[in-house]
Amino acid sequence: MKYRRLTKEQLEEMHQEFINFLAAQTITVDEWNDIKKNKPQVAEDEIDVFSDLVWEGVLSKVTYLENISATEMHLFHLGEKEMRLIAVRVHQPGVNLTTKEGFAWFKNNFLTDAVEMMVAAKAYTEDRNKDKFELIEKGAVITKGELFTYFDEILPN
Hints:
InterPro entries: DUF6495. By secondary structure, the chain is α+β, with helices and mostly antiparallel strands. The protein has helices at residues 8-13, 15-24, 29-38, 40-61, 100-109, 128-137, 146-154; strands spanning 64-68, 72-78, 82-90, 115-123, 141-143. It folds into two domains: 8-61; 64-154, no CATH class. The chain contains seven helices and five strands, in the order H-H-H-H-E-E-E-H-E-H-E-H. It has a five-stranded antiparallel beta sheet with strand order 4-3-2-1-5, with helices on both faces. Helix 3 (29-38) crosses helix 4 (40-61). The radius of gyration is 21 Å and the shape is elongated.
């Protein structure tokens, strides 16, 4: 498996897509039920293949990721040839970027000495989607990139 198996909830949400996936392999409902009952490892393998296909499709479309913790933000723009990062670290005791109050403080104080910002770029390895997946596995979430775009416009390159 290249990525990881979709969760039970994700698989349930993609029920129709999974049926289409099986149909594309000419596996009927009766055959699938038989596989699950009599060849559970084959069923597991099919779910793994489907999961990888879903991840490939999602990852190929991802352009922005964010990983925000109490004191740090990692904002990623995932371009064609490289990923760009805007990293933020808050040095103000008691400020938590994951709360409404903490983020409000940050919006008013991000140009002060209490906030450190860094911009970096990195080329992908030979597998761009795997690089994106690793960021997601470390806690990044897919976004529309509003935060990245905002800071990218005001920070010097």
